[in-house]
Amino acid sequence: MRQKYFIPKELRYSIAFIIISSLVAGVFIIYLAKAVGGLLDEQGSLPIILIMLSYGIIVIIFTLIFAHRFIGPFERLKMEVRLIRSGNYDRRLRIRGRDDLYIKSFLDEINLLLEECQRIHSTKGDFAKEIDAELMGLLAMMEKGECTKERLMEALLLFRDKVRSITGKTGP
């Protein structure tokens, strides 16, 4: 089986955004360190401490921002899935506009699956009614005494064909 070595473009865009943002923040901190070092004009440890604090603040800010973009949608999505499982089959999973693109493409696939499940669920009731009507017809035929072995066999084969046509199954 052939492996795919490239990740989807939405995920590549997200990772590129993280890297570019980190590089821009790093350049800003270096510029800030040079400005502070020039103002202090001494070789003490204060510029190094300021640089380390700046990097720490940038790491904390980026962690909060990207965790919010990547992980944030999942709590809301879990709630949406619970609502769907409870019987609200017409709901679809959505994310905020600022959430990650890769999550959005994944949810598009999940929503297609939900549409198929909703279609199957809505036809389930019709299918049950069809089977019930056919079985009641067979029972009525048996009650009237019109039921020979050949007629029952023919009615059961017709019933089987009807069930297979409704479910879309073919073959033996």
Distance between the termini: 32 Å
Total domain count: 2
Beta-strand residue fraction: under 5%
What does the oligomeric state look like here?
A: single chain
Structural overview:
- This protein has 172 residues and is mainly α.
- The protein has two domains: 9-119, no CATH class; 121-167.
- It has five helices and no strands.
- Helix 1 runs antiparallel to helix 2.
- The longest helix has 43 residues, at 101-143.
- It is rod-shaped and about 110 Å long.
- The mean pLDDT is 76.
Question: Keywords for this structure?
Answer:
172 residues, mainly alpha, 2 domains, rod-shaped
Topology:
Layout: H1 9-40, H2 46-70, H3 72-85, H4 101-143, H5 149-167
Short note summarizing the structure:
This protein is mainly alpha-helical and 172 residues long. The chain has 5 helices and no strands.
